[in-house]
């Protein structure tokens, strides 16, 4: 077997169940859904006549046939089309699992028609605005031929071929766009990187941009809980599906297979409207990374203060997206070009968040990076290096298994940008360390401040977010690193954002002290006088899993962790402090 060959397992056929929606069955042909049509009682009615071309065959460049559903206005006028690309079935928007997700986060299923792909644009709205929606069953899914793959050049090439096929259909203007959250966002990085000529604009709404760093080996740790959920609950079909879990086990270091799963975002040259948040512990880092690296001269970033599903289906945000698409797909002179290139959020976690703050860049003008040095003796954070060397230590097997450092602010202080830590660390009784780092906001009395990102604030949502489901409840900024994977890739690292190569293992020897840099997820936080910031260095993930029900990663720690501080080993937290209004 080739050293970097993909690994596959047999897929399970798509059968009725939690993932099986009303339109999941194979039923080729064209029909019209009249205005007032309702897919099921839980969903809203469609406002206009919609033509549904179901299970239309599309052939990829290698001869594999895939099937797509196309929903388009019942008009003789040609329309542009928006692609919702994912392995989730064409009918999964009406599946019990998708309905349950809306219920979990506190959204009314009546805001959508059920004709949408899960996490994708709703045809009921977009067809009424003069757009078609294409919901594909991608390679290997449902009745489509071939073997499924997870986020790589193959998906980009397949989506390229679909885009070019759609553009020449007799109902299409030749303008194609893409939109959607999560998987549907990631697919856009790969598709646009292939530069299909008829792709006019993209709208990635939060998604990873590096399968190794964001999904299966974050910080060099084999944390595959969400990858397992993807593998087991998606890619239903007749063929095989890529086994990214087996790949992560076989290829724990960065290699050609993982490089192929990093989209070449510098090749994205078309208009892009990117949406991000500080709070999605799965998607945040990858979304910002992709936005930074995109080659497009026409890219917009909006950072919101909720969770992606409520944000994506919000009426005002949908209208904002329509203005973007109307401008670039219909040529409308609607003032979109005057939209600030960046609209960011500042959180105070007490009900006073600010959103849609305009800027030309992220971080905005006026941000400086300030070092707050750790003092292992007083457990304080200060802007001057402690004059005495000291060590903060903890036993990884007993409570609390962490070390905290705190700074109190005398004046209102705004932080917006990319935090990181540089730490001098030592393992006593082990040759490696799994380190988890957190930045939390505390009120003046020292209590942690948190914020739900979804409308649901019930007792149940408190329960499931108490130790996990961190995408639903924002608790602060986080980062992680396995110390033996500390080597930096100097070709892409910056002072603000360290990037690890993950191509080598450098174990620790007894008594060895090494310095490590760890990037934390971007922040936008306001601290009022008296409030505090807490830095936590821990042997375990205090925020828990990203989503409910995921298998939690068990850190590979033993012995004691020693954090060195002071003049000879000046460990620090670097924060992006805004110095002007």
UniProtKB/TrEMBL annotation:
GO terms for molecular function: dipeptidyl-peptidase activity. SUPFAM superfamilies: alpha/beta-Hydrolases (SSF53474), Galactose-binding domain-like (SSF49785). Keywords: Hydrolase. Pfam families: Peptidase_S15, PepX_C. The keyword Manganese does not apply. SMART domains: PepX_C. Residues 322-574 form the Xaa-Pro dipeptidyl-peptidase C-terminal domain. It comes from the Bacteria. NCBIfam families: CocE_NonD (TIGR00976). This is CocE/NonD family hydrolase. It comes from Mycolicibacterium septicum DSM 44393.
